[in-house]
Design a protein that fits this description.
Layout lengths: L1 E7 L1 H5 L3 H11 L2 E8 L3 H7 L9 H8 L4 E8 L2 H9 L12 H5 L8 E3 L3 H11 L9
Antiparallel strand pairs: 1-3, 1-4, 2-3
Helix pairs in contact: 3-4
The chain binds uridine-5'-diphosphate and magnesium ion.
């Protein structure tokens, strides 16, 4: 059993892709054990993406992530981290495999619809960034 953090980014929410993304998650068999809509401010987005603070795209990315509401979710299942990343597709939608969310819906390397944790340690940090224990149900 593994947990991962998923985010439907501001472009995904604005383009009414919440239902589509949730449908794909449920179809894949991953369980949603927490979910809420929030809007981050710039400083909260900077904290979330702190690992990228020295990257050239950091300022633009954190501006984008705080530009509108996002849906944050905890997904649970066997190999949840890699399964969700496989469903998302490569960071650059042009390189993403067919049938992935980013290949199907992303419009830009930054505006790529979804986020997913990349390892157990980052998943633990990212889940704790948004959810306390009472907000995660047993499913
Ligand atoms: N990103 C960007 N330009 C890049 C690489 C990444 O704007 O050259 C953005 C993109 O939104 C990506 C996020 O920064 O999803 C985090 O980058 P990361 O390399 O962690 O990609 P991910 O884990 O989201 O696939
Ligand atoms: Mg990443």
């Amino acid at each position: 059993m593994q947990k991962t953090l998923a985010i439907i980014k501001p472009d995904g929410v604005a383009r009414k892709l919440i239902g589509e993304v949730v449908k794909r998650i449920e179809k894949n068999g991953l369980r949603i054990s927490a979910m809420k809509m929030i809007r981050m401010n710039k400083s909260q987005a900077r904290g979330f993406y702190a690992v990228h603070r020295d990257k050239p795209f950091f300022d633009s990315l954190t501006g984008f992530m705080s530009s509108g509401p996002v849906v944050v979710m905890v997904l649970e299942g066997q190999d949840a981290i890699s399964r969700w990343r496989e469903m998302m597709g490569a960071t650059n939608y042009k390189e993403a495999a067919e049938g992935t969310i980013r290949r199907d819906f992303a419009t830009d390397i930054e505006k790529n619809v979804v986020h997913g944790s990349d390892a157990p340690e980052t998943a633990a940090f990212e889940i704790g960034y948004f959810f306390n224990a009472f907000e995660q149900v047993s499913v």
